[in-house]
Amino acid sequence: MKRYDIADRVRAVLPVGEQGAKVFVVTHINHSEAGGGDVPKAVRPKVLVGHRMPGDGWARFFSVFGLILKVVINDLPSPGKGSDDPEYRVTAQQRNHRFFGTWDSPAGRIMAASQPLCTGGMVTAIAVSESTLRFVYWQNRRWGVRIGDAYEMGPCFRRDTIAWTRRRGKRGGDVQIGFVDGSWGTLLLPAATEFLAEFPESLTAEDPVP
Question: Could you give the 3-state DSSP secondary structure of residue 150?
Answer without folding.
Answer: strand
